[in-house]
Write a structure and sequence with these properties.
15 helices; about 0% strand
Length: about 350
């Protein structure tokens, strides 16, 4: 038996069933409408330490790039021996006549004891040379580490075993001692003993040796990541569809590796700054009169007992840069992988 329903009751019954609302064009898309990169950027911007560190790092790179322009506006260069040209700047012992390393309106950071070179411009070009070497080494180490690590992890087998043993040897090898011992031999082969070693050869040698021993750590990290990723379903699906190994590496594996790559690069650059400065301090890297952080600290160690000013500026700027870059690396890591944040 059918129970008749009034029009009012029918209208009331159908009113309870609401049609799905049309999507708001101004609302979020795909969940919250933000890609992982945008989410990481938002997390980074909320990290005050990371933002301040980024400004400090950018400031150093701007100074390094603009060093010739700053020196030109300043009116001095890092090679002229002002103390030798003007005897009133240095005393009979080669120390600056004015206190605090000879700081004055003409020489903002003072002058170098002995030769009387301008400390301000010497520091500008020292930052420029040190960051050039460290940045070039970091880029080469990252590219080589990516290529070798991904290739070994993806191919596996004998290739992975061979690369793994090479990585173990390089990580266990005392690279600094090797460079100190190998440097005179290499220079004697490439340069006549009666000639001065060209600066470009020293720079190329530094970059080459630090790159040769530096790629192993990032390659080992990426090899382990790829060994885990190649067993995932999306890689297996790509193989089933007939994708080539090159396509799988660039389209499937590499996009999932940018986080560890970026973190390793941000932590590697300050390490190469200190490594290059340490080699220069030991006399097997850049040497005077080429401006360099390590050269300035090595020279300052000779005169710090009588005047610490000459060591103060390169030492303080290097400490500030290294700390800022390490803090930046930590902030980048936390932004990209918030699970690691303590």
């Amino acid at each position: 038996m059918t129970i008749p329903t009034s029009n009012a009751e029918a209208t009331l019954g159908t009113a309870d069933v609401k049609a799905p609302a049309a999507p708001d064009p101004s609302g979020p898309k795909g969940g919250d409408g933000r890609s992982p990169g945008k989410l990481a950027w938002r997390r980074f911007k909320r990290d005050r330490t990371g933002v301040i560190s980024a400004y400090v790092v950018v400031f150093f790179f701007v100074v390094a790039i603009a060093a010739p322009l700053i020196a030109k506006l300043y009116g001095k260069d890092p090679y002229t021996t002002y103390g030798q040209n003007d005897t009133s700047l240095l005393d009979d012992f080669g120390s600056p006549v004015l206190p605090n390393g000879g700081i004055s309106g003409d020489f903002w950071f003072g002058i170098e004891p002995g030769l009387g070179r301008d400390v301000f411009t010497f520091l500008l070009y020292g930052i420029r040379n040190s960051l050039l070497i460290a940045t070039a080494t970091t880029l080469l180490v990252t590219v080589i580490g990516i290529a070798i690590g991904i290739t070994a992890g993806y191919l596996g087998g004998k290739t992975d075993y061979l690369v793994g043993r090479v990585i173990d040897i390089l990580l266990a090898f005392p690279s600094t001692l090797f460079f100190i011992a190998f440097w005179p031999v290499m220079i004697s082969i490439l340069v006549d003993p009666e000639e001065n070693t060209p600066v470009w050869l020293t720079v190329v040698s530094l970059i080459s040796v630090m790159t040769a021993f530096g790629w192993a750590s990032i390659a080992r990290l990426l090899r382990g990541e790829v060994l885990a990723l190649r067993e995932r379903e999306f890689v297996e699906a790509a193989k089933v569809t007939g994708a080539s190994p090159t396509r799988i590496i660039f389209k499937e594996l590499l996009p999932n590796l940018w986080t560890p790559i970026l973190i390793q690069a941000t932590l590697a650059l300050p390490a190469y700054v200190t490594a290059e400065a340490g080699l220069a301090f030991l006399g097997v890297g850049l040497t005077s009169p080429t401006p360099d952080w390590g050269v300035m600290i090595q020279r300052g160690s000779d005169v710090y007992q009588s005047d610490i000013t000459f060591m103060l500026f390169p030492g303080a700027t290097m400490v500030i840069f290294v700390i800022a870059f390490n803090l930046l690396g930590d902030s980048v890591r936390d932004a990209l992988d918030p699970k690691t944040k303590r």
